[in-house]
Design a protein that fits this description.
490 residues; 16 strands; alpha+beta; 7-stranded antiparallel sheet
């Protein structure tokens, strides 16, 4: 899936207006000490996460401070990663789509307040309240087309069958709407598939062709392009997944699902530097458009959405420094772009390992802190547990998950909607290696959204460990539940 988080994760990042202002000239130079520290950290994380290959880009307002490859782009052929190596974008590709939509808005060819039925006249009447801005902000209420049951052999979006764009839209039109547009936020790749179709209808060109002509070519992003299994593409890396502890090649999908606008691009750290440089200017978009993209979208109740999401970017903070970021995952690749505009710093991490095991966002955040020390995340070390009853509840919940029991009655409506039988089975299998019999240690507890207390536990058994994130809503239902690879830093 092209989602930004794995398993049953509800991620809540709160936007912050606080920032530690630095001028471009105040950034430290990348000396040998910095480089060696980054190399050591990256090597340790690659070993811990079992990442075959990885590329790092560090930029100051688009100026490349470091562009470096680590490990292998192709394990079978023993090909090393270099700065030119291409990785798949996953959902990081969505930010190019949002920029393209805003270009069309500036040209008067569409409006953020247009009902999407203007572009999909055969859609059900229930689509009429859905606006372009709801698609951009993941507040449309549309269901996720890319769920396990829908993309499997018996599903309408089986990943190994080719469909035309019109066929995909027709299938999406048959999906249920989960809530009224603007009432809630939930990450849905469906939204950006439709935005790609809208760009095609308005511009007369497939969205990837539009991006190539209007963004990639003008910016000199000569390597960024749509995924293709058939084309000969220099410097293309291979994607990998880990199954039952063994490294495997990525699963094959049809060309259709390597061409949709929810995240199906190739790029490298050299090209992303050019994109980062442009985002500090008004070369592509007016400042008002950029500001709209980087403003947390408000729900119908007037409150900012709990994820801190704008248009294809998460807007939040890292140690009270503004951070604008997005992650991506697709076909055995993961990546993250974290921009710290008030520090004139951007860190990009691209990997060729699946989202269930790789955590490029963590690597990017720590590298940023190694370069600008106030950004360094705190370590996740054991802390005193002043409310052991929470650990007792989590232990009981883990017992139920591993036993295959249905936990949905205990969860909030929004979280329950994310739990499918396939996802629950995967999580149960994943936890079975560390629970029961594992050791649970509290490493973080803080106040989350809506007054909920969110606890993070490290559950370990032998050489294996996982992070478990748990929080209750005010009504006593589980509102936050996450399972992530073990990590040293927050």
């Amino acid at each position: 899936m092209r989602a930004v988080a794995a398993f049953l994760v509800v991620v809540c990042s709160i936007a912050s207006s606080l920032a530690f202002a630095q001028t471009p000239s105040s950034l430290p130079s990348l000396d040998q000490q910095h480089t060696q520290a980054i190399d050591t950290f990256v090597a340790s994380e690659m070993a811990r996460q079992r990442i075959p290959g990885l590329a790092v880009g560090i930029y100051s307002r688009g100026k490349i401070l470091l562009a470096k490859g680590y490990g292998l782009a192709n394990v079978e052929l023993n090909v090393p990663v270099k700065p030119e190596t291409l990785f798949q974008s996953g959902s990081v590709g969505k930010q190019f789509v949002s920029a393209a939509v805003m270009m069309l808005v500036e040209e008067g060819k569409l409006s953020l307040d247009d009902s999407i039925t203007k572009y999909f006249p055969d859609a059900p009447a229930t689509w009429r309240p859905i606006l372009i801005k709801n698609l951009l902000s993941h507040t449309s209420g549309l269901s996720e087309y890319e769920s396990d049951d829908r993309t499997g052999p018996k599903g309408p979006f089986y990943l190994r069958i080719d469909f035309t764009e019109d066929e995909l839209v027709t299938k999406i039109e048959a999906l249920p709407i989960e809530w009224a547009p603007g009432d809630k936020w939930a990450y849905r790749n469906t939204n950006y598939v439709l935005l790609g179709a809208i760009i095609h209808k308005v511009s007369g060109k497939p969205y990837a062709e539009f991006l190539g002509e209007r963004i990639f070519k003008p910016l000199g992003m000569t390597s960024t392009r749509l995924i293709s299994d058939s084309d000969i593409i220099p410097d293309r890396s291979a994607g990998y997944e880990i199954h039952d502890g063994q490294l495997k090649n990525q699963n094959w999908v049809s060309p259709t699902f390597n061409s949709t606008a929810d995240g199906a691009l190739y790029f490298n750290v050299l090209d992303i530097a050019k994109w980062d440089a442009t985002l500090y200017t008004t070369r592509l978009l007016k400042q008002s458009s950029l500001d709209r993209i980087w403003t947390v979208y408000s729900l119908n109740d007037g409150k900012p959405n709990p994820a801190g999401y704008g248009f294809a970017w998460f807007i939040g903070d890292q140690n009270h420094h503004k951070r604008i970021e997005h992650g991506g995952a697709w076909q055995g690749f993961t990546c993250d772009i974290s921009r710290y505009p008030d520090d004139s710093l951007t860190v990009v991490v691209l990997t060729n390992l699946d989202a269930g095991h790789a955590n490029p966002g963590l690597i990017a955040h720590v590298i940023a802190g190694m370069f600008v020390p106030p950004l360094l995340p705190a370590k996740l070390a054991a802390i005193p547990d002043n409310d052991p009853s929470i650990a007792t509840k989590v232990a009981k919940l883990l017992d139920q998950i591993v036993a295959g029991e249905d936990i949905r009655p205990q969860t909030s409506a929004q979280l329950s909607a994310l739990i499918t039988s396939e996802t629950a089975a995967r999580v149960s299998k994943m936890l079975s290696s560390i629970w029961p019999g594992g050791t649970m240690t509290l490493v973080k507890r803080d106040a989350g959204p809506k007054g909920r207390t969110v606890s993070t536990f490290r559950v370990s058994k032998g050489s294996e460990a996982r992070m478990v994130i748990y929080g209750l809503d005010p009504d006593g239902k589980i509102g936050t539940l996450g399972f992530a690879p073990d990590r040293e830093y927050q």
